[in-house]
Automatic annotation (TrEMBL):
InterPro entries: Globin (IPR000971), Globin-like_sf (IPR009050), Globin/Proto (IPR012292). Coiled coil: none annotated. Keywords: Heme, Iron, Metal-binding, Oxygen transport, Transport. This is Hemoglobin-like flavoprotein. Residues 1-135 form the Globin domain. It holds the Pfam family Globin. Belongs to the globin family.
Length: 136
């Protein structure tokens, strides 16, 4: 469960004037494929559609932050889809690291230890609700 303070930090970072979503998504995937090169084969050569899927998923998940039952249903479905394409706990670790690293680069001086902790906690909670990282 995400605390009220963490929700506020997450919303603030997404709504930041520094947040340019298209740039963030490109940067995230570059970092993710560098950390987890084996997962690149799961994705299409043309990543435009995948970029849109990530933005859509992220939007739905952030909107559902204040509605845990809706969030749970979204994450259960996403977990099943990710398991079907053989995503592993190691990939989720790489995802979380790449995601927070890309956010830190994009947000620059607006990024803080508290913001990092909020996002890391949120993304770990997402992974757990998708039935990943259960052994962590």
């Amino acid at each position: 469960m995400v605390s009220e303070d963490d929700r506020s930090l997450i919303h603030r970072s997404v709504e930041s004037e520094r947040m340019e979503l298209d740039h963030f998504v490109r940067l995230f995937y570059a970092k993710f494929f560098e950390i987890c090169p084996d997962v690149r084969a799961v994705f299409p050569d043309d990543m435009a559609g995948q970029h849109e899927k990530l933005l859509t998923s992220l939007t739905h998940i952030i909107e559902a932050l204040d509605h845990p039952e809706k969030l749970s249903a979204i994450l259960k479905h996403q977990g099943e889809r990710h398991r079907a394409i053989r995503i592993t706990d190691a990939h989720f670790d790489g995802f979380i690291h790449s995601f927070t690293s890309a956010l830190a680069d994009i947000l620059g001086p607006e990024w803080s230890d508290d913001t990092h902790s909020a996002w890391r906690s949120f993304l770990t909670d997402i992974a757990l609700n998708m039935n990943f990282l259960r052994t962590a």
